[in-house]
Amino acid sequence: MEIVFKQVNLKRHFNLCYEFRRDSHFCSFGTYEGYEESVIGYQEKIQQRLNNPSWHYLHIWHEQKIIGQLEFKSFSFLENTGYVHLIYVIPEFRGLGVADKAEMLIAEKLKNQGCVQSLLSVSRENERAVRHYRRFD
């Protein structure tokens, strides 16, 4: 399956960013409770960071459809370590290798920015994601 990664077009696709984050929250916690508070200022944060080369906000495209979103940065509290905030794939494209390709892109971009490793957090309640990331232990 061919996929393409493009920088988020905030003016055209903020509603998708919002919905992808919302579904990700539900996948992580099994509830929408707390979601609204977690995205206060979300659009403004993305806007401020879009032109900063340390931050990456990308949509994943398949043909003419946006099927996912990535949010990551080339720094964290550890030296030479990037941080992944979001790897999101819409339900009908999960399990098809999209996340694997996304992770390869993230690794490549972070390596090019001097990172030797990356971190991410995953909720234990998000069993699908936990199984996916355990493959890399």
What does this structure look like?
- A five-stranded mixed sheet has the order 1-2-3-4-5, with helices on both faces.
- The mean pLDDT is 91.
- It is an alpha+beta fold.
- Helix content is 40%, strand content 25%.
- InterPro entries: Acyl_CoA_acyltransferase, GNAT_dom.
- Pfam families: Acetyltransf_1 (PF00583).
- One of its GO terms (molecular function) is acyltransferase activity, transferring groups other than amino-acyl groups.
- Residues 18-137 form the N-acetyltransferase domain.
Secondary structure topology:
Layout: E1 4-7, H1 10-29, H2 35-38, H3 42-49, E2 55-62, E3 65-73, E4 81-89, H4 98-112, E5 117-120, H5 127-134
Parallel strand pairs: 4-5
Antiparallel strand pairs: 1-2, 2-3, 3-4
Gist?
The chain is α+β, with helices and mostly antiparallel strands.
Figure out the total of helices: 5
Written as H for each helix and E for each strand, in order along the chain, the element string is EHHHEEEHEH
Mean pLDDT: 91
Q: Strand order across the biggest sheet? A: 1-2-3-4-5
Full CATH superfamily name? Gcn5-related N-acetyltransferase (GNAT)
How many beta-strand runs?
Answer: 5
- Write down the CATH topology: Aminopeptidase
Q: Strand content of the residues, in percent?
A: 15-25%
Number of domains: 1
Structural class: alpha+beta
Overall 3D shape: globular
Low-confidence segments, ≥5 residues, pLDDT <50?
none
**Radius of gyration, CA atoms, in whole angstroms:** 14 Å
Distance between the termini: 26 Å
Report the sheet with the most strands, covering strand number, pairing sense and barrel closure.
Answer: 5 strands, mixed
The helix fraction, in percent, is: 40-55%
CATH architecture: 3-Layer(aba) Sandwich
Name of the CATH class: Alpha Beta
Organism: Leucothrix pacifica
Pfam families: Acetyltransf_1
GO molecular function, one term: acyltransferase activity, transferring groups other than amino-acyl groups
InterPro entries: Acyl_CoA_acyltransferase, GNAT_dom
